[in-house]
C-alpha cells in the first residue's frame, strides 16, 4: 500500500475506538485521535476517553495531552497531527485516525480553509453578547450576515457561530466566501471507514454509555471542575448539564436525561456531517475486523 491514513468515523458510542484498535493491531501501527473532547487531561469520564487497557493495546496520540486552560484550536491540531503523521509514515505505510469531530477529521484529511486575521476584540465582544443575551442573538446575526452558512452550520454550537461572525464582521464579507478555496494537498491517501447502525441501536448505546458514566463518577468529575466552567472546553454535552444541576437549575435526574437527549442530537449531527461525504466506506457496528480489512484492501488497489 502507498502511504495511507485509515480514518474511522461515525456517531458517538458506535464503537470507533474498538475498531481503530483492531485496525492498528492488524497493521502494526499507531492511532491519531481526532476527538476534540478527549484532548483535555481534566476531562475523562464525560468524554469517554479510552480505558487504560485500550490505550495499552495500541499507541495513541492526542489523548489528554492538553489542559482545559490551554487554548488549542483546530488549526493547532491540524499542524500537530500532520507532523505526527509525517513521523509515523517514516516507519509504516499505514496510520489510523479515529474520531467523531468532523471538522478536526477534515482538517487532517483535507486541510483547513484559510481566513484573514481579524481583531481579537470582535471575538471578545461576541462572547460577551453570548453570555448576556444568549445564543439566539448570534443565530440572528449570522442569518443576516451570511444566510448561506446559516443554513449549514450547527446553530447550537456557539464556537462555530462566534467564529463565523467574527470573520463576517472583521472582513465585511460572508464567512462562506472563504470556504473551499485552495488547500494543502496531503502526501498520503485517505481511506475513510464509517461505522453505522440503525437509529434505535445508536440511541440505545448512547443511553447505556451515559448510565455507565454516571456510575463511574461523572457527577464528581464535573463538581471538581466547577471553578473552570466558563472555559470553552467545558461548554460541552455531559458537563454543562451537570453544571446546571450544581447551579440549582435542574434536578439531577433531569440533568442526566438532558445529557442523553443532547448526546442523541449530537450523534444525529455527526451522521449528517459524515453522510455528506461521498468517499466513505460504511460498515456495520458489529462487522468482523476481517471483513473491514477486506474492504480497506480493495479500496487501496
UniProtKB/TrEMBL annotation:
Write down the EC number. 2.5.1.75
Per UniProt, substrate binds at: 12-17
What's the cofactor?
Mg(2+)
Q: Which InterPro entries match?
A: Dimethylallyltransferase, IPT, P-loop_NTPase
Q: Domain of life, per the record?
A: Bacteria
Which amino acids does the record list as binding ATP? 10-17
Has UniProt tagged this entry with the keyword Protease? no
What's this protein's family per the entry?
A: Belongs to the IPP transferase family.
Task of the protein: Catalyzes the transfer of a dimethylallyl group onto the adenine at position 37 in tRNAs that read codons beginning with uridine, leading to the formation of N6-(dimethylallyl)adenosine (i(6)A).
Q: What is this protein called?
A: tRNA dimethylallyltransferase
The gene from which this protein is expressed is miaA
Amino acid at each position: 500500500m502507498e502511504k495511507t491514513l485509515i480514518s474511522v468515523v461515525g456517531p458517538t458510542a458506535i464503537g470507533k475506538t474498538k475498531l481503530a484498535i483492531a485496525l492498528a493491531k492488524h497493521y502494526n501501527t499507531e492511532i491519531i485521535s481526532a476527538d476534540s473532547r478527549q484532548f483535555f487531561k481534566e476531562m475523562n469520564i464525560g468524554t469517554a476517553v479510552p480505558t487504560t487497557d485500550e490505550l495499552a493495546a495500541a499507541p495513541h496520540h492526542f489523548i489528554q495531552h492538553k489542559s482545559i486552560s490551554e487554548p488549542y484550536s483546530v488549526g493547532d491540531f491540524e499542524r500537530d497531527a500532520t507532523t505526527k503523521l509525517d513521523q509515523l509514515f517514516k516507519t509504516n505505510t499505514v496510520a489510523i485516525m479515529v474520531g467523531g469531530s468532523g471538522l478536526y477529521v477534515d482538517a487532517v484529511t483535507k486541510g483547513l480553509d484559510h481566513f484573514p486575521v481579524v481583531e481579537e476584540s470582535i471575538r471578545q465582544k461576541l462572547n460577551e453578547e453570548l453570555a448576556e443575551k444568549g445564543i439566539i442573538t448570534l443565530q440572528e446575526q449570522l442569518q443576516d450576515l451570511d444566510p448561506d452558512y446559516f443554513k449549514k452550520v450547527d446553530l447550537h454550537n456557539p464556537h462555530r457561530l462566534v467564529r463565523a461572525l467574527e470573520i463576517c464582521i472583521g472582513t465585511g464579507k460572508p464567512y462562506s466566501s472563504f470556504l473551499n478555496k485552495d488547500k494543502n494537498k496531503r502526501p498520503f491517501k485517505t481511506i475513510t471507514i464509517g461505522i453505522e447502525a440503525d437509529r434505535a441501536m445508536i440511541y440505545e448505546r448512547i443511553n447505556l454509555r451515559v448510565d455507565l458514566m454516571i456510575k463511574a463518577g461523572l457527577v464528581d468529575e464535573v463538581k471538581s471542575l466547577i471553578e473552570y466552567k466558563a472555559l470553552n472546553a467545558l461548554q460541552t454535552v455531559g458537563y454543562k448539564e451537570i453544571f446546571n444541576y450544581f447551579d440549582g437549575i435542574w434536578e439531577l435526574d433531569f440533568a442526566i436525561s438532558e445529557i442523553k437527549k443532547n448526546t442523541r442530537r449530537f450523534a444525529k449531527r455527526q451522521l449528517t456531517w459524515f453522510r455528506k461525504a461521498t468517499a466513505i466506506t460504511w460498515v456495520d457496528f458489529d462487522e468482523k475486523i476481517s471483513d473491514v480489512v477486506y474492504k480497506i484492501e480493495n479500496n487501496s488497489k
